[in-house]
Write the structure tokens for this entry.
Amino acid sequence: MSINRHSVTLYGKPECCLCDEAMAVLRKVDAVVAFDLEKIDISNNPAQLAEFGDKIPVVFVDGIQVFKYRVNENRLLRLLSA
């Protein structure tokens, strides 16, 4: 039997304190409910900069945007446990 892991993507930039906080929450939750994590640096991508700009960090779960600016640990746990 194969277990499908959720995919979580964080869009952010270096030297972004909110991005660092979001990553800390993601790592904490990953220790409870494992998922595939991808961190994308938008600073060198004009299209992503235009889309997200100063609205970072932005977090997607399985391709759906679920958080902007801050990650709610309890909500993320519920999403990944569903």
Remarks:
- The chain has one domain: 7-81.
- Residues 17-30 form the longest helix (14 residues).
